[in-house]
Amino acid sequence: MVEAGEEEVIEFKWGTRKGLGGKKKDVQFYESFTYDGVEYSLFDSVFLYKEGEPEHYIGKILKIWENSDKSKKVKILWYFRPSEILNFLEGSETLENELFLASGEGEGLVNVNPLEAISGKCNIVCISKDIRNPYPSDEEVQMAEFVFYRFFDVGMRKILDKIVVDKIAGIEVKNIFNNLDSQKVVGLVKPDLDNKEVSGNFMASNEVVALSSQKKSQPLIEKPDGKCFDTLVRENAASKSLLGEKPTCSIGVKEASKSANALHTISNKKTVPQAKVEEKRGCKDSLVKQKSFAKLSHGLIAGLEMKEITKMDDGSGKGSIEKNILMSRGDSKRDDRKDVGVPIGQIKKGLEEENASKKGKRGGFGKVSSLKKNNNGQNRRLITYDDDNNDDLKTIAPCSSKEKYKVQRAMDSCDVEELPSKKLKIDKKLAKLTSDKLRKESSMISPNVEHKLDFRPMEVTRRPNDEDRSKWFKEIPWEEKMKTAYEQGRLVLLQNLDPSLSSSEVQNIIWTGFKESCTARMIQKTAYSSPHSGQAFVIFKKSEAAESVVRKLDEGCLLMSNGRPLVASSGVPCFPKKKPIFYGHHVVDQLRMMQMQREIKDVVSTSHCSQPNNIEYDMGIEWCLLQERANKSWRMLYQQQGEELSKLKAKLKSKI
Amino acid sequence: MESSAEKYAAFKQKVSRTVYLDNMSPQVTESVIRTALDQFATVKNVKFIPNYIGPSNQPQCALVELDSAKKAKEILSMIAGYPFMMSGQPRPVRARPAVMEMFDDQPIKPNRKIKIRWLEPSDPDFELAKEVKNLTRKHAAEVEFLDKLLLEDEEKLAKQQEETLKVHYKKFKMIEGIMADKTAHRLARKYNLHVADDWARLD
């Protein structure tokens, strides 16, 4: 009768049977069981609770069995926290959530525990680079509560970076590393708080029941009424029974964090379809836009193909693949924009044919642009007209009387244009043609950019003339460039970049977003740099360009990957002083005076490790203590900032 | 594409055998670092990380490339175990493994595509993006403030240790003085104490 009542409360259920064991063949082994609504299997990682300990123990289930007296046992292979093996770390740094798996032979490797000591499942991922280990994905590593890639040999009291043996405690190594099937299962198991409350009731009610074990070697505590309780034994430490204890606050905290993770996962899934919807909306908006803009963007595509042609001539066999990609892009673009009248013919093979087709394209494009200019009489167009005029003269195109009249009016700007044209003569023919066309396109497009910003996602493309420039001129040191730019007001500090971006990628972003050529330098990370926001200094060619970039980024939002809006401000760099102050190095003044009297040069001690028996060592340790406090402050600040950022970014629905 | 992937792999190898050192005095030069670390490993390259945005009196930082990743680990554990002092004492140097973002010639990650997008003011995410921008600026201000606080702590400890050093110096000076002019000897005779033989021989 009593047992029937317990079964309703306990919610325990055996899983797959494995076989019989023991001397009398009365011990039943299992491969899995369901306890408190959670299914456990062999080689799962679990939390185990012990009264009085501030933290749970963590171990891996190796064996599961039931004795003839219905007592349930598990054999656990232990993980060690870094704090538990502090004396053997030898100064090596550990990750915040790193564990060490026990290996070797000796005390602390494995032992037997009552099954009821298990308090929950634990998601542990092995990030060892061993060939036998299927390496987890980045998402799995982030979702894991703990990670491990090193082992602690309990016999030799030593940390091992690799495991050479095929077995640990008689278990195959493949069961130690990540299991592909179990990874999927772990994600599904999410115990609720209600079940924990039920288990609390179960533990309280179970106080009355006495469980005895056959193994006499285990220490037992006898209470005044003469009943015996099983104990969780680890390294022969005796303690009170677990069964009388209720779940601790830490369990609740972990449950809350798990539920938070679940909510985050759900919110991530919801954002994806909305992003797609917005992309479609962007496509529809683009169709509505003016014909002229469509034609101009079409010109951009032609320019891209020109660049690809240049690459194909230099490149290897992959050029044909890229060509196909380009053609497919061109086709998709055509479907979107039916208004475009200029046809794109296939790029023919052979140099002569390519030259012929290029001439044809340029001529046609020139005609279209000249027609537009006749319509508009703005001053900006005059400069554009001059570029076009130069090209027309080269190709011996017919000139009208109006064009001649305009040429005379814009005589001054022509002189300015001559300088870059001289530079261009030095370059190769292909580069020359490419740069001519791109310059026209960029100058023509810029008026439209000021009127409207393109709200569609843009893929960052490589900046033109990136390599040619460095061949001809020696690079001025960056510090000098930065100083000059700062004095002239051309320096901009960018923030909230992805820290892993490189300087050339920042330049490409600026080119794609603002059509401005610039020089950029990512600020190198130090021990105290923020992991959330990378910074870069950008030098523009004109102060007006720098001002316009800062203003645009202040008023509008340029969104980068992972929902990062770019932040810009005028850069105020810090230049090194001649005699910087440094705290922590002391010299006795009297000794210095004596040295000066003897006319001996100032001597600095050689580099050395200090011995722990003098004043210098004590002072050094004080500096180490201050350093550790500073490290902790920085870590706490960045953790707090990370939480604030992730909360806010979770609301951002559109992600590129 | 293949060449960029190979460059990236070579760069990773370089990062794994590089050590990041900081808390160094401005007097520390490349030759000082080479001399200091030649006790433990062969130094291939030394690069100082310039300070562009921080407070002007930040300690110096450097990236030291060694000949193997194993040597890098050894140096890291050695410097973590004992206070290692360079070009002055008693403030020790600190060592950490290098990270990719610490290098100024970091290559582009292969097969990565970056996309950017302007947000419309009418977009519901526009206000959120503005909030993120303001939060970024606030975080930068917080970092600056914490930097300032920690520098103040360093200054306090330095002053305190300077006082301690002066006291120690005076103490040893006084002891040396009373030993030299035989005051200790006379006091010992007066109190019927036995003076060490070394000093007795000086008579």
UniProtKB/TrEMBL annotation, chain A:
A molecular function GO annotation: chromatin binding
Protein origin, superkingdom: Eukaryota
Chain ranges of the BAH domain: 38-163
RRM domain location: 490-573
Pfam family, one: BAH
Keywords tagged on the record: RNA-binding
InterPro entries in the cross-refs: BAH_dom (IPR001025), BAH_sf (IPR043151), Nucleotide-bd_a/b_plait_sf (IPR012677), RBD_domain_sf (IPR035979), RRM_dom (IPR000504)
Location of region: Disordered: 312-387
Compositionally biased region (Polar residues): 371-381
Biased composition (Basic and acidic residues): 330-340
Protein name, entry field: BAH domain-containing protein
Automatic annotation (TrEMBL), chain B:
All copies of domain RRM, residue ranges: 17-100
Gene Ontology terms describing biological process: epigenetic regulation of gene expression; positive regulation of defense response to oomycetes; regulation of post-transcriptional gene silencing; RNA processing
Gene Ontology terms, MF aspect: RNA binding
GO cellular component terms given for this protein: nucleus; protein-containing complex
Coiled-coil regions, chain positions: 143-171
InterPro entries, alphabetized: Epigenetic_reg_gene_expr, Nucleotide-bd_a/b_plait_sf, RBD_domain_sf, RRM_dom
UniProtKB keywords: Coiled coil, RNA-binding
CDD domains cross-referenced by the UniProt entry: RRM_SF (cd00590)
PANTHER family documented for this protein: RNA-BINDING (RRM/RBD/RNP MOTIFS) FAMILY PROTEIN (PTHR36309), RNA-BINDING (RRM_RBD_RNP MOTIFS) FAMILY PROTEIN (PTHR36309:SF1)
UniProt name for this protein: RRM domain-containing protein
Organism: Glycine max (Soybean)
Lineage: Eukaryota, Viridiplantae, Streptophyta, Embryophyta, Tracheophyta
